[in-house]
Amino acid sequence: MRYQRRSPLLQDLVEMAGVLLAGRGGARLLQILKVPLSRTSVLFHLMRLPLPVAATPRVLGVDDFALYADVYGTLLVDADTRLPIELWAGRDAEQLAAWLRTHPGVEIVCRDGSLVYRQGITDGAPDAVQVSDRFHLWQGLSKRVGDIAAAHRGCLTAAVPDPEATPPPPNPTAPSDQADTRARRHAKNLFEAVHAVTDTGISLHAAAHQLGLNRRTVAKYARAATWQECIRRTPSRRPTSLDPYLEYLRHRWEEGEHTATVLHQEIAAKGYRGHYQRVKIGLPAMSLSCVGPEAQIPPAAATFRHRGPARSQARREHRSADRADTCQTCRRTGSPGEHGRR
Which range of residues forms the domain containing residue 12? Predict the structure, then answer.
C-alpha cells in the first residue's frame, strides 16, 4: 500500500517487535502475526522512537570500549539499573566533565585506572567518590602480588623447609638379585662370560667370534652394568572388565560348562557389560589353568607329529616300487613308459 495507515495498537506492536528483536527477528515475528514488514521497515520504526529521558544516576559507571583498531569510545552506565545512559566517541576528560556538570547528583563514580577519566570526574564532580570496578581491582591485586613475589623470589625459596627424604617404594615388578630361574641363570652366566672376554680389551667382533655369539648379543651384554638389565621383562597385564568374573567362570568351567555363549549370558545377568568375544578369548587360557600339565598337549597333536614323517617315508617307498615295476615292464615290451616321456 502506498499510503499505509496503522492503528495505535498496531503501531505499538511494530515498535515493540523492533525493540525486542530488532530488524530481522522483528520482521519474522510480525510475519507470524499477519503483519508483513521488511527488516528495514522494522528498523525504520525503531529509529523513530524517542529515547527515554535518563535520570541522573546515583552510582555512575564509566568505561571505554574499542570501536575498531585504535578508535575508542566512552560509555556511561547506571550502576544500579545496569542500563546505558550515554555513548560518545573518544576518551576526552573535558567531555566527561561537561556531562557531569549538566547532570548534578552523581555520588559515586565507578571507573577503571585511566588518568583521563580521573581528571574528568575531578573537574566535573569533585564531591563524587571515585572507586574502581571489580575487574580492575582483581587485575591490580594480582599484578601487585606477582611483582612482590618476583622481587622476593630468593627469600621465598629460603623460607620453604626442605622436604624430608622418603625411601622409594619397593617395585614389585623389579627383578630380584637371585638367579632363581633357568633364564636368569643363563643371563648371569652369559653376562660373566662376555665381560670376562671384553674386559681384556679385545673388540666386540673378536669377542663374538671367540664366544660363538652374535655381535649384537655381545654388545648388549657388554654395555649392561648388571646382568639384571639383560633380562627381558614381561609387561604387566592390564585389568579388564572380565576380571571380577574370572573366579565364577573358573568355577563353572570346573563344573563342566565349556560353552562361551552360556557363560557370557550368566555373567551378563550378574552385571557384566563387556562383549561376548572377550569371554570366548579367555576360555582357552582358563582351560589350561584348570587341567594338569600332562593334559595340556592334546594326544592327537603328538600322534600327528610322529605319524607325519612315517607317512611321507611310506609314500616315497611306494612310489619307488611302482617306478621299478614300470621300468621292468617297459624293458620286456620295448615301449617307453610315462616315465620316459617326463
Answer: 8-48
